[in-house]
Amino acid sequence: MQNISKFTNILEKNRIEALTDGIYAIVLTLSVLMIGTGLYSGSVDSSTFYSSLHEAVPQIFNYALSFVLLSIFWVVHHRQMNSIVHVDSLYIWLNMGSLFFITLIPFTTNLNSDFSEYPLAVAIYAANIMVISLSYTLSWFYAARGRRLVADDLSDSTIQNGIWRGLLTAGVSVIVIVAAYFIHSEWATIFFLLIFVGGFFIKNPKPTNDPT
Amino acid sequence: MQNISKFTNILEKNRIEALTDGIYAIVLTLSVLMIGTGLYSGSVDSSTFYSSLHEAVPQIFNYALSFVLLSIFWVVHHRQMNSIVHVDSLYIWLNMGSLFFITLIPFTTNLNSDFSEYPLAVAIYAANIMVISLSYTLSWFYAARGRRLVADDLSDSTIQNGIWRGLLTAGVSVIVIVAAYFIHSEWATIFFLLIFVGGFFIKNPKPTNDPT
Amino acid sequence: MQNISKFTNILEKNRIEALTDGIYAIVLTLSVLMIGTGLYSGSVDSSTFYSSLHEAVPQIFNYALSFVLLSIFWVVHHRQMNSIVHVDSLYIWLNMGSLFFITLIPFTTNLNSDFSEYPLAVAIYAANIMVISLSYTLSWFYAARGRRLVADDLSDSTIQNGIWRGLLTAGVSVIVIVAAYFIHSEWATIFFLLIFVGGFFIKNPKPTNDPT
Amino acid sequence: MQNISKFTNILEKNRIEALTDGIYAIVLTLSVLMIGTGLYSGSVDSSTFYSSLHEAVPQIFNYALSFVLLSIFWVVHHRQMNSIVHVDSLYIWLNMGSLFFITLIPFTTNLNSDFSEYPLAVAIYAANIMVISLSYTLSWFYAARGRRLVADDLSDSTIQNGIWRGLLTAGVSVIVIVAAYFIHSEWATIFFLLIFVGGFFIKNPKPTNDPT
Hints:
mainly alpha, 8 helices, disordered N terminus
């Protein structure tokens, strides 16, 4: 039995973590490449310098928002991997799926940043965040259901906590999309703050299933 | 003897893995930089915003295709490394050769994405995929032949499985090239789906050589 | 108790290090992308080749300055992690905060490099350095105060040394900002050399609190 | 004593390796970003497509050359780290110095690739390679001299082998510079093949200093 796991297709956790951390590191850094591109679009004189710099400010805020959301996802992935005892082929592909949508973040961040007057641009960004959170929720559901890939004594409340938190982020993304179309597209992303508000209402998991 | 391995030129598996994972992380993320460049080519008004966004859709599909193919290669590399017990100098250079062609993927992906009306552009992309799969097949053949770098009890069917899977991807790439020239260049890459079809016909390896 | 730490929210040091090292690797390399962009802005003849190359020289110096400052921060982060025994949620978020400002370095380096005739551009760069050093000082203060996350026998002088070094870099950044406005903006960054001068006056920490 | 090493300034080998592997992964991949930029400089019709593609061929060869040279340096660094038992502060800074010149490779590769008709462009590229090899030779000399950072029983011939190989690459770089000015700048980099020729004349190290 150990032979099977060793020589056929069990992939170790640590290389998934290495690839994931590498992709997060790149995506966290990449969006910054687009900041201040107005400054490099030709000859710059004093007035264009200050106006271009002024333009860069909302770009930095949008980049910061993506940085915070990606950090949350990274911590979520981290917690999942800490609970997971072994991985199987389907879990790896679910993980690759999540990573695909994470690599789209620099593109959708720039879309949201440069075209926030179009509700569609903001909605694409929020939809990207929604898909990532649903994807991580699905991964966790797959791993935890029936204790498939996690420790047998992992508490029910830890499992439920992971699912609720994923659904919270997805739900908040829907609110942002609605707000982009019906309230104000340029300020809609401020509703992402609801993730932190909502977090207070999700009770912390009990470590064990003990009846105490 | 241990002295030799320690102080001359045995390079450990884990650093090869670190470099490989790093390069995969970058290549998986890099192509996205080209998505939606039409959106940044000057002043954007309402009509150009929607038409540029429309243009980005096939780019995202082509990027997704590369993401899937690279993920397959990453899993293949992973399985090879899991079976390999030690590495030698030639294996490292075979690995660097594979990595070279992997780093060309962002360039050939963009070629395929932006010039898919030219069969040559699609063929270059498919040829890149073909060379990578042949390169990994060669690495595996070198490592497994005579159990050179793998465990002595690795089953024959595991070794053959690796070779067949590599040849499958290379063969499918040839079909894509032919399709690009003789059927329709813009839809030729859809034949890459044959990798999944073909995968069903390759029987899973038996873990051991036991006669049972 | 161990159950709690395992299954809820203790994140291991090594993944924080992996993400941090990945981001440093990218940021250390990224600024170079902007070097010599003048060379690619159109058709290049003999005279523009030499003049563009000439332009690249100060860019390389500014990139080298960022490389040195980032290297210092990387070593600082390294020392902190070496002393830290375990991490908690707040420390991770302090770390992500530091990383955010580190990812801004390629942008502010280019700002400083291409617009050094504007004191504001130089000041933004120096402010970025200042915020990073204050952020690391805060992380260290949080981790070390009351031996919260560090070993119980970590000496007082090691803790104070970390704080003094952080404040030194922050203080030197303030000097650079003042120099950019009141002395000469294009030469103001030379005052960053004061970090090395100031380093001589910070006494090395004693390893233990032993009265000897 | 162990306390000192733990809590003051000994930095572990593995994090230096992580940062180094990350930077190599990025630099190995980065140059490819410049390949085929002619294809994206505006509206592309059939004739410009083929001529731009034709232009990309020498770019790919120049990128391949950098890939091979960087791979050699990576293997060299790897061998050094395998022999080194512990690291000190100066070794880390020598390592950061090498990395600085490695991060310049994408810039100098593009310079060499796009302006190979100027001897100066080729010479800058070769000088970059020369500085990297001298830098690694110096690191090795520092680490190995008096067995400062390496094992006490490391053979003399292993130490000398590392130094000779470093000087070989540096010497070949000088030949390339001379060839760029006095023979033909566009073909001068072919002399880098002398590294492989020269490698045959450097005898492999004996693992031990035993008189046998």
